[in-house]
Design goal:
This protein is α+β, with helices and mostly antiparallel strands. The chain has helices at residues 4-7, 54-59, 109-114, 123-145, 174-178, 202-212, 248-269, 271-285, 298-307, 315-323, 326-329, 346-357, 407-416, 425-429, 445-453, and strands spanning 16-27, 31-35, 43-46, 65-74, 82-93, 149-150, 156-157, 169-170, 195-197, 214-222, 235-244, 311-314, 361-367, 383-391, 395-402, 438-444. Bound molecules: 4-amino-1,4-dioxobutan-2-aminium adenosine-5'-monophosphate and magnesium ion. 4-amino-1,4-dioxobutan-2-aminium adenosine-5'-monophosphate is lined by residues 161-162, 200, 202, 223, 232-233, 236, 238, 240, 396-401, 440-442, 444, 446-447.
Length: 473
């Protein structure tokens, strides 16, 4: 059996082939545009309707699954180079045009989210899915070539890796939770203690980096933050490399190289899908007022990121720029920047990236008080060796840091931040036995896909999004 992606590369010499797929469109009682998911492009299949019985002909509608056998010939049409002259036809499953929701017309993304089990049959969602798959492959390939080991960190955990407390509880003690008067006794729970879905595999990855050297984990992570935005999911996938003997500079360098490398991979390997999404974005932008349209097309934006150096500034410099910026002075920001030490909101991040620097920006050395407990304290005792990478149109895409490798300093910081040092004894022990400088970062996979596909809502780049009040499918 041959896939359409390969058929379209074949020299047509009248050879007999069989293809199977779903009908995209059927024109003039003759031309079936067939798609099997292997490429954004359809195969034109020409049927001999005169000799086809009426009942079969009626079933040839958008969405029907079909097997077609015929001769591959040179096409006379301008749109395609080859076509299939059909001699045999078998219908597997029809799709009643009165009821099948995915008709050959423009559907809104909101409508398609309600039909998430069928939206993969549209060109947009299949292109996004293929790019997602290619990026996943490119990520593993990048790390393999650099001798990193892929490790699988636990999904169920008793520790809060980010110390932020926005976690989903895992329990089998249903009744105890319903009985609100009673204090929950976790010793009776499945694991004998309070457990959650992981918010990050970082801490466990650190333990493996301290023996394997360079590792990465790539898995689902869960956040119970009630953020109903186009950038947040309750279940998202994260790539977290962790490297022994890396300082913050090595870490930033690797992150930049990593992002450029995987984006280059799709420029080369996903050309047709990117061209389709490029055109799609362009069409979308036509509906916007001129000043809101982006200066670059999707492919230009990806090329720009791949071929330009990311801008690096520290938090203090970033605050200075923001404080003196027009929107701050004219009170256009929702959160005005006044003092050193405040956390950057996405409006600030986007100002820096989209208006001020007009390129990806790495901000490093953040105030200790707004960052996680594990980040290495600088000599100023005020800032930590943190770094965030901000992307145009997205905001934060990467968060990372050099880790505190000094036992006393880490313990002190954990106590100050009210982190349970008994629960984290194993994490502290890494600093007792053969401790070493080390660093890592986390890349939000869906945020990267947003950038790579030009989609604007994170719900459209994961098959089945989990967001507040929504866990359908
Ligand atoms: O900045 P975060 O919270 O960092 C960590 O979890 C570290 N443990 C990573 C590390 O150093 N190993 O998350 C990292 C990235 C963010 O920059 C963002 O791209 C993405 O994960 N992210 C989300 N993506 C979708 N939905 C959410 N709710 C996200 N929260 C974070
Ligand atoms: Mg972050």
């Amino acid at each position: 059996m041959i896939k359409i992606i390969d058929v379209l590369k074949t020299k047509p010499e009248g050879q007999v082939i069989t293809v199977q797929g779903w009908i995209k469109t059927f024109r003039g009682n003759r031309f079936i545009a067939l798609n099997d998911g292997s490429t954004i492009n359809n195969l034109q299949c020409v049927i001999d309707y005169v000799n086809l019985n009426e009942i079969t002909l009626k079933k040839i509608t958008t969405g029907t699954s079909i097997k077609l056998q015929g001769e591959l010939i040179k096409s006379l049409g301008k749109e395609q180079s080859v076509e299939l002259k059909v001699t045999k036809l078998k219908i597997f499953g029809k799709a009643d045009p009165e009821k099948y929701p995915i008709q050959p017309k423009k559907h809104s993304l909101e409508f398609l989210r309600e039909k998430a089990h069928l939206r993969i049959r549209t060109s947009t969602f299949s292109a996004v899915a293929r790019i997602r798959s290619s990026l996943s492959f490119a990520i593993h390939d990048f790390f393999k070539n650099k001798n990193f080991y892929c490790i699988h960190t636990p999904i169920i955990t008793a520790s809060d890796a980010e110390g932020a407390g926005e976690m989903f509880r895992v329990t089998t003690l249903e009744n105890d939770f319903l009985n609100k008067k009673k204090e929950v006794d976790y010793s009776n729970d499945f694991f004998g203690k309070k457990t959650h879905l992981t918010v990050s595999g970082q801490l466990e990855a650190e333990t493996y980096a301290m023996g394997l050297g360079n590792v990465y984990t790539f898995g689902p992570t869960f956040r119970a933050e009630n953020s109903n935005t186009s950038r947040h999911l309750a279940e998202f996938w994260m790539i977290e490399p962790e490297m022994a003997f890396y300082d913050l500079n090595d870490n930033m360098k690797l992150a930049e190289e990593f992002i450029k490398n995987i984006l280059s991979y799709i420029l080369i390997n996903c050309e047709d899908d990117l061209k389709f999404l490029d055109k799609r974005l362009n069409d979308e932008e036509k509906n916007k007022p001129k000043i809101e349209r982006s200066e670059m097309s999707l492919i230009e934006k990806i090329n720009f990121v791949v071929s330009n150096k990311f801008k690096k500034i520290n938090y203090t410099e970033a605050i200075k720029i923001l404080k003196n910026s027009k929107p701050n002075k004219k009170k256009k920001f929702k959160y005005l920047i006044s003092d050193w030490g405040t956390d950057l909101q996405s409006e600030h991040e986007r100002y820096l990236v989209e208006k001020h620097f007009k390129c990806p920006v790495i901000i490093y050395d953040y105030p200790a008080d707004i960052k996680a407990f594990y980040m290495k304290l600088n000599d100023d005792n005020k800032t930590v060796r943190a770094m965030d990478i901000l992307f145009p149109g997205i905001g934060e895409i990467v968060g990372g840091s050099q880790r505190e490798e000094n036992f006393e300093k880490l313990k002190e910081r954990m106590i100050k931040m009210e982190i349970d040092i008994n629960e984290f004894y194993w994490y502290l022990e890494l600093r007792k036995f053969g401790t070493a400088p080390h660093s890592g970062f986390g890349l939000g996979f869906e945020r990267l896909i947003l950038f790579a596909t030009g989609m604007t809502n994170i719900r459209d780049v994961i098959p089945y999004p989990r967001t507040p009040q929504n866990a359908s499918f």
